[in-house]
Protein: Integrase catalytic domain-containing protein
Organism: Macrosiphum euphorbiae
Amino acid sequence: MANLNLFRRKQFTPIETVRLYIKNIVNTSNQLNGYKWVHLKCIRQVFTVTQETIRHLLLEVDPEGVVFTSKKRLRRRVYSNPGPNYLWHTDVYDKLTPYGISISGCIDGFSRYIVWLHAASSCSNPNIIAGFYVYTVEMLSGCPQTLRFDAGSENTIIQHLQTFLHQNNPSEKPWVLILKSTENQRIEAWWGILRKHQSQFWINLFQKLKEDGHFTGSWLDKNLIRFVFLDIIKTELEEIKTEWNSHKIRGEKGNLNLFRRKQFTPIETVRLYVH
């Protein structure tokens, strides 16, 4: 039959039925699948359809997904934030905690402006985090619409402070968002930048002290680390904060049109948005 260019007659599934099915599955985790896998799913649904038809339908229904799949890239959630001071992300960086030094940071989700970045002997004390928050609110003469943090006990006081400052500001939006630390997208991403440009040096140094037998994790050893290095790290963090807040950033899809033609510093972003 093949030599004669003959084949069995097939009753193909109506194209609209297949298109509707594909529209439904691309809204789920199946959007990560290529056209061959989607074709297999169609076969399991007792559809009679060719791989080529599935490929064209995917291009039509989900062109962005096809691009990501062909490049073997993950489709990540798009971060959206309407403006400065709408949402602050705060968290504690604990990579130096085993050596007696903790770092607390807070970043504005829209402009990526570092609101505060401080090192302390411990950031598990809620009074310390509250001090950072109050000092920042006083310096900026304002607080965010929403403050995002994890459920750690160190955040209990700032939760009450944020709520108190909004008691005369009724809004449908929540004043605090309590989520897992790993879901605190903006600040978690920035911790990676901090490690690349500063903290990895200190991690290596303290690890070397430990390997050489000069650090055992005792109360005395941690306090010696703080006595010698804490002020140095504080100074470095202030420098990094200043440098970061003055560097050029690229705009993101969904944010203001003013980003489309030019790069701005986080500080300029806030000024342009306000004015």
Notes: Confidence is low (pLDDT under 50) at residues 254-264. Residues 145 and 169 are 10 Å apart (CA to CA). The beta strands are 87-93, 102-108, 114-120, 146-149, 176-178. The radius of gyration is 26 Å.
